[in-house]
Write a structure and sequence with these properties.
Elements lengths: L1 E5 L6 H10 L7 E4 L10 H8 L4 E3 L3 H6 L10 H11 L4 H8 L4 E4 L2 E4 L14 H10 L4 E3 L7 E6 L2 E6 L5 E3 L4 E5 L13 E7 L4 E7 L3 H11 L3 H9 L2
Parallel strand pairs: 1-2, 2-3, 5-6, 6-10
Antiparallel strand pairs: 1-11, 4-5, 7-8, 7-10, 9-12, 11-12
Helix pairs in contact: 7-8
Length: 242
């Protein structure tokens, strides 16, 4: 069984549409979304409707939890808080109510799904090998999927040690003989200096994960962001992948 794994869409409809179009030929059966549908971007509700066209598992991110009243603003930067306050003005009650009842992590078919990390499912980053090793000790699952950092990467724990790598487009990681922490990257706001939308396919039968990137017209998204009132900083960063 193949799963389309997404994270950090942040209301970027053009990026999500490009991903879904590129993923059509991968024969996946459902979507596992690792959170942050809201914040930074102009169309979270439209993105939500697209996700709902498919069997969906949705783990809320920190931005989603703030929007639905489950996380305080003190955990966000000033720029993030401004974007979230703005986002509240156009997010539907239906989406808010939906996010209120979502669990902060899940175990699906033996795989652990979190937004940030097993250590802190909604907030605590995995940014380096020290963070990864600590989280391998906290979770005993063979495969852990996470997002939050907006960086497409993976960590493998093998008999010979712990290894990390930034993923490349089309790269397939096998976890038949190792434990893995996998970040599919951000759909709507990558921060690894590649503006293309990031995503991946999890193959549960073959125990592997393939990383992908999708090009999209980010200038359309930028125009929508400007019209909605987002800051120039947020508007400009999606073109740089930062």
């Amino acid at each position: 069984m193949k799963i389309l794994v997404l994270s950090d869409i942040h209301g970027n409809l053009e990026a999500l549409t490009a991903v879904l179009n590129d993923a059509k030929n991968e024969d996946w059966k459902e979507i596992w979304f690792l959170g942050d549908l809201c914040g930074y971007g102009p169309e979270p509700d439209a993105c939500f409707r697209k996700l709902q066209d498919h069997p969906l598992t949705f783990i809320p991110g920190n931005h989603d939890l703030y929007i639905c009243g489950r996380m305080k603003g003190e955990f966000f930067s000033r720029e993030s808080r401004k974007a979230l306050i703005l986002s509240r003005s156009f997010i539907s009650r239906e989406l808010i109510d939906y996010m209120k009842q979502l669990p902060s992590y899940r175990i699906q078919k033996g795989v652990e799904l979190v937004h940030a990390s097993p250590e802190g499912p909604s907030r605590v980053y995995i940014l380096d090998e020290e963070d990864a090793l600590r989280n391998f000790k906290i979770s005993r699952k063979k495969c852990i999927l996470f997002g939050h950092s907006h960086i497409q990467e993976y960590y493998t724990l093998e008999k010979t040690g712990l290894y990390s790598r930034r993923a490349s487009n089309g790269e397939t990681l096998s976890f038949k003989k190792s434990r893995v922490l996998i970040n599919p990257g951000s759909v709507g706001q990558p921060r690894d200096r590649d503006p293309r939308a990031a995503w991946g396919i999890l193959d549960l039968k073959n125990k592997d994960f393939t990383f992908y990137r999708s090009s999209y017209d980010y200038e359309i998204t930028q125009g929508k962001m400007k019209k909605a009132g987002f800051s120039e900083f947020l508007i400009n960063r999606i073109a740089r992948g930062e």
